[in-house]
Write a structure and sequence with these properties.
Blueprint (H helix, E strand, L loop, with lengths): L4 E5 L2 H12 L5 E5 L3 E5 L5 E5 L14 E4 L3 H13 L3 E10 L4 E8 L5 E6 L9
Parallel strand pairs: 1-4, 5-8
Antiparallel strand pairs: 2-3, 3-4, 6-7, 7-8
Helix pairs in contact: 1-2
Length: about 130
């Protein structure tokens, strides 16, 4: 099981403001604030931003991404909308996707540094709803 993940950002204050806004629909809040890192989560910091002031934007072809779990489709849609309206860009509109084991509802964004973040909710009911 993964305990937490970290991504690099060029402007920690700007990234913290971006993520405070877009992670709110997932129930994440800022729980840690240090000189070079900020942590977000529900009960403890699960998603960390690490300051790398001289980093170049993350290229689109790295193949790396982080997927965060949403409680429902509405949270996925709201995350995507907030990210796109706050300086991120869409890298996959909200919709149904075929995973390895089941269909799920998800969306992808690129944050202002180019980090690829997915948000997904998986069916809990036999009818495919979450």
């Amino acid at each position: 099981m993964i305990d937490h993940v970290s991504i690099a950002v060029s402007d920690l204050a700007a990234a913290a403001a971006f993520y405070a806004h877009v992670l709110q629909p997932l129930g994440f809040t800022q729980l840690a604030d240090r000189e070079r890192t900020v942590g977000f989560g529900r009960k403890y910091p699960e998603f960390w931003l690490n300051a790398r002031p001289r980093m170049a934007p993350v290229p689109d072809n790295t193949g790396n991404h982080v997927c965060l779990r949403a409680l429902n489709r509405e949270a996925v849609v709201l995350f995507h909308e907030r990210a796109v309206s706050s300086g991120g860009r869409s890298d996959g509109e909200p919709g149904i996707r075929q995973g390895q084991m089941t269909e799920y509802f998800g969306a992808f964004i690129r944050d202002p540094d180019g980090n690829r973040i997915e948000v997904a909710t998986f069916p809990r009911n036999g009818d495919g709803t979450s």
